Sequence to fold (191 residues):
Amino acid sequence: MIENYVKNLPVDDLMRGSADGIAAFLYRLWRDTDGKMPDETSPIVEYLPQLVILKTVHEPTDSPDIIHVGTESLFAKLLPHAADPKVPQPKLEIEPQYRNLVRLSYVEASKGEPRYDVIGSVYLLPGGLQWLKTERILLPFTAPGGLRWIYCYSILREAQKLKGPPDPKGPRENSPSLSDRHQLLMEHATS
Fold:
């Protein structure tokens, strides 16, 4: 049986080479600025294509809304249709079970502390059912007026294709409904 999980890791491990150079740089920038929102002259701007930016959590029963999907982010690579600017809320393209699995890390990041974790999860992607292992850093940056956004950088560590129906066009186009996909995921998780 495949088990979905989120394992929190010490954020300081980023500085000891746990993730990659980008993750370490982003954490160092957050730490050096005391979590203050970077401006357009900040070096973080060159990394925006690799980031997903989210609002903070106001309702702890779901992950937060997404306000930016970088074209080179892991999110855009796994769900390219969700990165389309015409998609009103990219979060809704993510499986509800996955959003529920990862939501608590966003709750903690919304309080102002960075989070670093490893996630293992079964997910139905355009290429079919897969088990993914990712590393993720969540950095809460605060604007001068007090508004906070969460900058998310993710790294794919492992992808394993599983038996299940292919989903060649993604969730919004000619794919199983959310309830059908949920049923498929639950059947696979218990087999």
